[in-house]
Amino acid sequence: MGVEELRLKDLSLPLRLNYSLQTPNLNPSTPMAYLYSMEKIAWRVEGMDCNTCALHIHKFLEKKGMQGVQVNYATGNVSFDNPGSQSENTLVKGIQDLGYEVVEHRREKIRKPWFKSHLQRFWFCFPFTAVLMSHMIPGIHLHFLMNHWVQLAITLPVYIVGMGYFGRSAWKSIRNAMPNMNVLITIGATAAFVYSLYGSLTGQPEKYLFYETAATILTLVFLGNYLEEASIGSTQRELNKLVKSQKVMATMIAFDDQHQEQLFQIENTALHVGDLILIKSGEQVPIDCKVLWGDVHVNEAILTGESAPIHKQKKDGLIGGSLITDGTVKAQVTAVGADTVLAGIIQLVKQAQGEKPPIQQLADRISAVFIPVVLGIAALTFTLTWILKGEFSQALLNSIAVLVIACPCAMGLATPAAIAVGLGRAARNGILFRNATSLELFKSIRRVVFDKTGTLTTGKFEIAQFKVEGDEKVEEVEFKRIAYSLEKYSNHPIAVCIQQQWKSADEIRWKQIEEVKGLGMKATDAEGRTYIAGSYKAAAELTTEVDHNVYILRDGKLLGWIDVKDEIRPEAKSVIEHLHGRGIKTVLLSGDRRSKCESLAKELGIDTVIAEQSPEQKLEKIGAWSAEKPTAMVGDGINDAPALAKATIGISLNDASQIAMQTAQVVLMNQGLKNLPLALGLGRHTFLTIQQNLFWAFAYNAALIPIAAGVLYPVNGLLLSPMLGAGAMALSSVFVLSNALRLRFYTPVTFGNDKT
Fold first, then answer.
1. How many CA atoms lie within 13 A of 27 on its CB side?
2. Is the model's pTM score more than 0.70?
């Protein structure tokens, strides 16, 4: 008998009928309720290589009337709101016409055929290009390679493969009035190829033999595209592994023909509203539910920011994702899918991500102007040379030289080479970047916002303070002895903390001891005196101080109280000092109580404290701060996820919730905050390297394009041949790659040094 059969049989039981619970209704005026009403289309799109690709898709969808468009080229995720103005088939066809492929998100990944990846294309082209360029190596002279027909035969396979990708992409982008970088690559390679082919066909190969230029252009750019694709893909795969490793299972209660309980392990996504589930101590609450039997202590820090476990009993609600620290309950599922609290927070994440516009890298922004400018210069060169000199062949030669010299090999490698090395260096140091854009964003961060529980603290408790008071004054040693002897028999996290720190060899031997749910530990000694270690409920008639964690009573009289606090991460103070040394403001933003947050901030030296905040309030504040100046958010809980998405850059820890890790652009893998300064420094240095590479790439073009156009010819008769242009192009690419490789040797400095 399957789970579904047992589930159906269970529907007739009085227990199911008596506890038919309704999913809580949301106020229609709230943002979360509005989000539930939205129907987002989510696709995976293959073929995006850079932010320019993402921008083309973004512009296309907006042009078609789509709203809330978000495109992530690194993950291939595309989502938007369709108001109904266009059919999905029309949108799919439009994206495919741009040169990209829309893939169903549930479809199993099909193995790509040959020549469908940049690595395959590079390795196919490389041997042919290496043979063509071998004459540039001293001591190597293969006479047969000087034959122009041999060079044509060697170049032709490279050119066909290159045009199969770059040419097709360029044509589609031009047809849709959105030219991309592949236009220049296609024109440059084609110009060199056609230039050489003209020489072969006219019997003048000695003047026009530049087949290796076409092959080099295509091979090097394939290499650059692969470097970026591989670096981003590897970090994304690592993140996905972390997320998938936290699968949530549930223990479902069903009944057989004899009305006997049967327990089944199923995934939480398979649960229905009304299902009965069993949740034990140490287990994660699989889904939103209401307690029918039993009582427990629940750690909701991952959802609310509150570090202390909360007592839950019959009819209380449990939030999916929280953790049972003590006790066992039977509960009934109250919400599934989009109606759960977790789903609401996920929707907030999507909203925050959707509001964030695509960020273009410097090369992509400049290329939008560079492409038409180069084409215009080539056309102008051809026209003026023909008019002034009256020689068509010379005019054609000069215009082709402009296109060859302007081919953006170095420009194409500038960003991906630096990013590939930077991401690799970061990964080796335990820093995973979700996308390359994160490296650029780090350079301008002026404010860092921290969550409290699990971020600045470890989530483990330690005794912060205690006080012996009341009419029956006892010595501190005796007070600790009483507290230890009582809490020794409890598995509550606070009790465990007291056990560890106040362990006593001279413990009290109780005549009787029990745990009273909702109250605490109650014991009787050999003399008949009654002791209690419990919550404020136990001492409500004896004191008005409600904020303490544990109250100790004897025979109904208060002996004192104990406060605990989260254990501070040992590196937290050094990290804060480092940020201050770089002029970065720090903020503590938490859902925990104000007193706890202020105490922690004072100890660590944090500039600003904002406490007792809901996920919606965190999102609002992060949005305002990010609009004011670049702001990073460091968090670990589900409640942090919307804020992580809204921040200029979101940073998560490796032991964070899966939602936080999915949302954050950066994950610190090495347990804690110690690599945050490194991430900031490496991001800044990587972007500096990109700037240096781009400066060289464009300076090279700015200097040599005018020469190729013939501006110096009237002065000294200087013309730049395509061969020299090809050599300069190769040299610029070597410089860019060498400069990027310097990042492999970047060494982080210790905390507090402003030179990171």
1. 3
2. no
